[in-house]
Amino acid sequence: MVGTTIEFFDFYIYATAAVLVFPALFFPAADPASATLQSLATFALAFSARPVGSAVFGHFGDRVGRKTTLVAALLTMGLSTVAIGLLPTHAQIGMAAPVLLALCRLGQGLGLGGEWGGAVLLATENAPPEKRAWYGMFPQLGAPIGFFMATGVFLLLTAMMDDAAFFAWGWRIPFLASAALVAVGLWVRLRIHETPAFQRVLDRQERVRLPIAEVLLRYPRALLLGTVLALATFVLFYLMTVFALSWGTSQLGYTREQFLWLQMLGVVCFGATIPLAALYADRHGRRRAMILATLAIFVFGLCFAPLFVAGSLGGTLLFLVLGLGLMGLTYGPVGTLLAEQFPTEVRYTGASLAFNLAGIFGASLAPYVATWLAGRYGLQSVGWYLCAAALLTLGALLAAPRRGHDAGVAGEEAGRAHVTCMPSSYD
């Protein structure tokens, strides 16, 4: 949880800055909307890098081990984030500034692509069979905690300095300060032990030579279904954070401080519903928990525009509380559910790749597509976009095979004999 909190803090301070800072400093244009779209395009770059990070770090995670790979992922993310805080702006070096910003963002994507899968596996592969969703939700808590910290830092800076100072140098503080957090994360991760499940793979000499090829050739269906079943999770979150912040401050008349405070209250609900979803998933099944959350996301999409309106702080708070609360309900069990789709020897690669491919098709495009839809067809078209993502995810959940608790399996070693076409939940 500590490690993923740091990684997501680094990731989200970029998301906030991509709306509030980067359009003015790195993408100067006569049209502020065009500058914002260009900034959001660099935000999307990280998601294209995340599957590459999944393949690279997943390879070593399935070959060398979870612990070593997680240390490397944290370093990659940390160095990229600190570098952003040191970048010169467009006024100083011209077009080289957005190019360097994009390269650093790619580095963030590579790091987070390798982070998530290893963190979830470190938790779930050490968990008792009846508590895998509960253990698996702790790395997931890194997302709301990291977001809360990132938003809080920008609020604090806004309160302590005027806009001139903030745009001159204040925005760099969160990026540079992340170096201290990375040091804490490295201290934690260097003290952890390898998981028993991966140790058994080593003892049985079952490591595969090229995990990414194994996933693509032997488990393409699990990869496809895993990608789509996480799609609505990503679309919802980045509509409720990046798009909502951009639209609320540019089109609905909310100040930066107002909207960041509202988002922080919504993120509290996000964090609170993650353990509730995990408890339900351990009792009734991960798949069932995800299906119910996805149905609720579809209904929320129908109410998107009526809830998100100008001049109503209470209505907008309700909008953010509901949307981010639903995010917790789907995010809590998704990590454990994805991990259950692959056997141990390729689980790091398979689960990470599915999760981060969902990020490309869900998160990376969501703020850009939503901004374009809202500008051309109105805000309710963004709600329809969310509904479409929910329907795709629902179809994948219904098509996904039942595993572990969802199949009513008491002893989870039983599926090993059928690993070629239906990998066991955990070995």
From TrEMBL:
Transmembrane segments annotated in the record for this chain: 12-30, 36-57, 69-87, 99-122, 134-157, 169-190, 222-247, 259-279, 291-311, 317-339, 351-370, 382-400
Superkingdom: Bacteria
Subcellular location: Cell inner membrane
One Pfam family, short name: MFS_1
InterPro entries referenced in this protein's UniProt entry, alphabetically: MFS (IPR011701), MFS_dom (IPR020846), MFS_trans_sf (IPR036259), MHS_symport (IPR004736)
Protein name: MFS transporter
Topology within the bilayer: Multi-pass membrane protein
Species: Luteimonas salinilitoris
PROSITE patterns: MFS (PS50850)
Major location category of this protein: membrane
Keyword Transmembrane helix assigned: yes
Keyword Iron: no
Major facilitator superfamily (MFS) profile domain: residues covered: 1-407
Xref: CDD domains: MFS_ShiA_like (cd17369)
